[in-house]
Design a protein that fits this description.
- This protein has about 270 residues and is α+β, with helices and mostly antiparallel strands.
- It has one domain (about 25-230): Alpha-Beta Complex (Lambda Exonuclease, Chain A).
- The protein has ten helices and eleven strands.
- The chain has a five-stranded mixed sheet, sandwiched between helices. Strands 1-4-3 form a three-stranded mixed sheet. The chain has a three-stranded antiparallel sheet with strand order 9-10-11, with no helix packed on it.
- A hairpin with a 4-residue loop joins strand 3 and strand 4.
- Helix 7 crosses helix 8.
- The termini are far apart.
- The model has no long low-confidence stretch (mean pLDDT about 90).
């Protein structure tokens, strides 16, 4: 890191510090509820197989960091100011509430469970939004304004057997709150499970015909989907591997448990959009 002698040096030094951060977590190797609502089936497959994300910019890393900090503040306000019951940690594990299916190939992590004085225990999901996104949520409701969030909480409810969820949003521009109770939609859940099943069966396709489609420009998997981002050579990233209900992978080429990549490895690729 260079010397910091001016305010310009200061900003550059901060950004460089974020850029030099070594990721502590490897790319997820499961389909998370937070991405099930993404309309691209290929995204589900890339997450299932642990394909790396594009490296986020320093600015984006700070946005994520602030979002997590705001979530903690929201939980504090719910418990201490509104005096409602919130369980943001699993009482047995001391960690975030999580549920999985198919041996861990499909996972959901919750911000918590919440119970108001009506006695209904609900999934709690917290989102921080900019002013435009927040106003859209207030005006139209989450199903219309943020279909990916709606898919996320629907998947959570279905996996954890909840009948309702509460989405609490905080406006990052003015700290305004808005909340919505969402009832479980079995039809939507079954639709999402069908999409998950396509990923588990290696039957997913890209959402667009080329990389310049607006839906692909900001995608975290753009590099592995359209570019030449390196992908680890493992059985999980091979097109001959299929996930099993036991949480393992099966090699269809050799009809055996997938353990280590062999000379016949072919990098998995989703189908092209017709």
């Amino acid at each position: 890191m260079g010397e910091v002698k001016t305010v310009e040096d200061l900003i550059v030094a901060i950004d460089d510090g974020y850029d030099q951060q070594v990721r502590e977590e490897r790319a997820r190797c499961y389909i998370g509820a937070s991405i099930v609502g993404n309309p691209c089936d290929a995204m589900l497959s890339f997450n299932l197989r642990g394909f790396p994300n594009n490296e986020p910019s320093a600015k984006l890393k700070r946005i994520f960091k602030l979002g997590h900090l705001l979530e903690d503040e929201v939980v504090s306000d719910l418990k201490e100011k509104a005096d409602v019951r919130v369980w943001e940690k699993d009482g047995f594990t001391g960690r975030q509430h999580s549920y999985d299916q198919l041996g861990g190939h499909v996972v959901c992590h919750m911000d918590g469970h919440i119970e108001m004085d009506d006695g209904v225990l609900r999934v709690l999901e917290i989102k921080s939004m900019n002013n435009a996104s927040f106003n859209k949520f207030v005006k139209h409701g989450v199903r219309k304004s943020h279909p990916q969030y709606f898919g996320q909480v629907t998947m959570m409810m279905g996996m954890a057997n909840f009948t309702e969820a509460m989405l609490v949003a905080v406006n990052k521009n003015n700290s305004e709150y808005h909340a919505e109770i969402i009832e479980f939609d079995e039809i939507e859940f079954n639709f999402l499970r069908e999409r998950v099943d396509r990923a588990l069966q290696n039957k997913t396709a890209k959402i667009a015909a080329d990389a310049e489609d607006w839906r692909c420009r900001g995608c975290f998997k753009r590099g592995v989907c359209w570019g030449d981002t390196p992908v680890p050579k493992t059985c999980v990233t091979c097109q001959f591997s299929f996930p099993t209900e036991a949480g393992l992978w099966h090699c269809s080429k050799h009809d055996e448990e997938a353990v280590a990549a062999c000379s016949e490895y072919i990098r998995y690729k989703p189908e092209e959009k017709e």
